[in-house]
Known about the structure:
99 residues; 4 helices; flat; mainly alpha
Amino acid sequence: MLLSASNAFLRVGITSLSLIDEKDHGAILGLGQTATSLSRMLAPLMAGIAQQGFSEDGPAIIAAASSLFGVACVVFCVPRPTLPSISLTDKKESSKFLL
């Protein structure tokens, strides 16, 4: 019970930190709750189909495959921030201040 209560409070806090415009607060929270509800509803259904269709290890295999798919999406699809390049002259000037 403590985990579910803390999850609800943390989700609202993290969502409000990530929002720039206050008008979108309710819509973002509603979409997040919808996605959570759908995943809680579909996960047992998919696990049952995997267990009866493949084997007893079907749900674990599907969970591992979907986790790897999520990691691959984050690694390859999420844009990375670009860092400014430092030239050799910048390094020499900054090393004067370090000594």
